[in-house]
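A.,

Following up on our hallway conversation. C-alpha cells first:
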C-alpha cells in the first residue's frame, strides 16, 4: 500500500512541476516553483537585504514607453515594485502589456529615488517635462534587478 501511495504522490509532484506556462519569456528562463507575492512576505523573510535572486509575481502597472528598459509591477498587496533589467540585457516589448500577469526573477532591494530620477521616469512614461516636474517627488521604492521575465498570455 505504501508503495502505491508513494507512486501516486510522485506522479502528482511530477505533474505539478511539468505544468507549462503560456506566454512570452524575456531574458533568461527561470524556475517558477516558488513565487513571492506580497511585501508582507518579503518583509517577514527579510528579503530586502537578501542578495539571492527570487521570483516575484504581480501585474504590469507601468513601463518605459521609449525603449522598454524598465517597468513597474503591482503585487497582491497593491505595492509597486520597479523592475530594471540586469545589464540592460533585454527589454520589454513595445506592445501594450499593461495589466498583464508577470513573473519577475531577480534580486530585490530598496532604493532612494531622487526627485530628478522621478522626473526622468515620469517622462519615460510619456508625460511632458512640465507635467513630470509637477508630479515628481523624492521617495523610497522596491526595485528588482531582473535577469528574466515571463509575461502571461
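Then the amino acids I'd put at each of the 153 positions:
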Amino acid at each position: 500500500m505504501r508503495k502505491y501511495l508513494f507512486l501516486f504522490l510522485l506522479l502528482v509532484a511530477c505533474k505539478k512541476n511539468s505544468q507549462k506556462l503560456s506566454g512570452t519569456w524575456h531574458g533568461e528562463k527561470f524556475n517558477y516553483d516558488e513565487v513571492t507575492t506580497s511585501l508582507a512576505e518579503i518583509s517577514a523573510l527579510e528579503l530586502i537585504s537578501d542578495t539571492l535572486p527570487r521570483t516575484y509575481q504581480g501585474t504590469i502597472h507601468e513601463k518605459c514607453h521609449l525603449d522598454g528598459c524598465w517597468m513597474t509591477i503591482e503585487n497582491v498587496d497593491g505595492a509597486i515594485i520597479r523592475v530594471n533589467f540586469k545589464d540592460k540585457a533585454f527589454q520589454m516589448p513595445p506592445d501594450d502589456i499593461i495589466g498583464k500577469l508577470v513573473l519577475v526573477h531577480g534580486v530585490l532591494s530598496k532604493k532612494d529615488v531622487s526627485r530628478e530620477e522621478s522626473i526622468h521616469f515620469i517622462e519615460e512614461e510619456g508625460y511632458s517635462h512640465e507635467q513630470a516636474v509637477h508630479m515628481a517627488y523624492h521617495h523610497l521604492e522596491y526595485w528588482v534587478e531582473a535577469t528574466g521575465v515571463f509575461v502571461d498570455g
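The chain is about 25% helix and 35% strand. Curious whether your intuition agrees with the design.

B.
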